[in-house]
Amino acid sequence: MEAAEIEAIMGELDAANAAAAGGGIAAALAGLLVSLIFGLVIYVVAAFILGKVFVKAGQPMWAAFVPIYNIYILTTQILGRPWWWILLLLLPIVDIVILIILMIDLAKAFGKDIGFAIGLILLSIIFMAILGFGDAQYQGPVADPNKLF
């Protein structure tokens, strides 16, 4: 084979590889776009459901759509826990315990029992929707913000 033939073959291979790589990049971007849209839809639905719970507790619905602020409102205003509990949610393992306590507090704040709290822990979005759209009435914060636990 001559050098010209080798260069021609290499050029064809480079073009084929570039086309294949371009197709792979397009597929990856399409997958990313679908994931972003799906995530956004899930976030909006979850925030809307949380907003219904907020309205029942006398808080504005828009607060449920603001990340971090919604946790602050839920923890301090609705459940009556101190603000620094939000910092505990940043600690591995501790966050799980705190979330369980917060879900139990949320059930109690709406006059529900431990069975409903377990539902909030295991199937949060469904049981949050039951709180927001059901006949549950907000009874007020159940935690004393001056106590540690």
Give an overview of the whole structure.
With 149 residues, the protein is mostly helical. Helix content is 69%, strand content 0%. Helix 4 (94-109) packs across helix 5.
List the helices and strands and how they pair.
Elements lengths: L2 H54 L12 H10 L6 H4 L5 H16 L4 H9 L1 H10 L16
Helix pairs in contact: 1-6, 4-5, 5-6
The total strand number stands at: 0
Name the structural class. Answer: mainly alpha
Distance between the termini: 81 Å
Number of helices: 6
Helical percentage: 55-70%
Largest sheet: none
Beta strand %: under 5%
Poorly predicted tracts of residues: none
Radius of gyration: 25 Å
User: What is the overall shape?
Assistant: elongated
Helices and strands, in N-to-C order? HHHHHH
Total domain modules: 1
Global mean pLDDT = 88
Keywords:
149 residues, mainly alpha, 6 helices, elongated
In short:
With 149 residues, the chain is mostly helical. The protein has helices at 3-56, 69-78, 85-88, 94-109, 114-122, 124-133. Helix content is 69%, strand content 0%.
